[in-house]
Amino acid sequence: MSSRPPAESPRRFHSEPLVVVLRHLEAALVSGTASIEVPDPDLGPGRYAGERVEGGLVHRPLRSWCDLAEGLSCRLRTPRGVDATHVRLTFEPLGAEAPWHAGGGERTESPRERYGSASDFARVRKFEDAGFLLPWLDAVGRLALPPGARVLDLGVNRGDELAAFEAVEGVRFVGVDHSASALAEARAAFPDARHAFVQADLNALPADLGRFDAVVSVGTLQSPGVDDHALLRRLVQEHLEPRASLVLGFPNSRFRDGEVVYGARVRNLREPDLSLLVKDLSFYRRYLHQHGFRTYLGGKYDLLLTAVRGPASGPDDDAAS
């Protein structure tokens, strides 16, 4: 007969302040996965976090528990019902960051294939995550593109973000990337002959690219080795039509163990540090304002800077700066 002591039951919470729950989880997670029992979120719809219901329980929204898990660098498993008032929440510590954040990952054919079809990065489908997709659709929705618009995508990879433009009649894509295998996937996804996908370095764009009605780039401009300030100047001066627009995505997240974690980080810092991101965004906005653009900043896991020229296109325009 085993002499192992019975497993300790998860602690049950009722109306304790969230900081008390946090401190309990921090201590419990030192030993690995931790579970707690909390008032069922579904029994308190329309209430604010911390608001008590009859019986003295605090039914915090599930979103609040998701935020707590993210802040603790954990995965929140699916809640399980315990009884008529409580559910069990299990917090599982996340593993290491995705290797490409540190410049690692598989080297398939050459450094150009670090983000190619056989790389660790190729597993990510950002636009299958609502935290990426919804802000992206909002940003693209600000662009009043004419029929037959030419759209330039810098760092196109396999072209996932281009699907948002397919409603534009006769739209024509030109995608630029240094990965041959990723470009092959983009060509397969958009086989129409009016689209072109070009293998090139963003620091040395082909001279014959021409001018475009929109330029987009998601998570590429801050890549090591890219002179993003010079690239922006060249785009504005050489590749934009008079009423062209841009949507530029700046990473504000990291990937850990298959999960996206909010907040830009610099190496050797555990907590998010948005200072470099804010500095870059300030330069971009200032430069674009000087060249007649109105800018909008949105997004979550990618901060999306949208810049448009021409007459106001919607009720939000008065709020632009």
Task: Characterise the protein shown here.
The protein is an alpha/beta fold and 321 residues long. The chain folds into two domains: 11-93, Translation Initiation Factor IF3; 100-319, Vaccinia Virus protein VP39 (Rossmann fold). 22% of the residues lie in helices and 24% in strands. The chain is built from six helices and 14 strands. The chain has helices spanning 18-28, 62-71, 130-141, 180-189, 228-239, 275-290; strands at 11-12, 34-39, 74-76, 80-81, 86-93, 150-154, 172-177, 196-199, 212-218, 240-251, 253-256, 259-262, 294-299, 302-308. The strands form three sheets. The protein has a seven-stranded mixed β-sheet, with helices on both faces. α5 packs parallel to α6 (275-290).
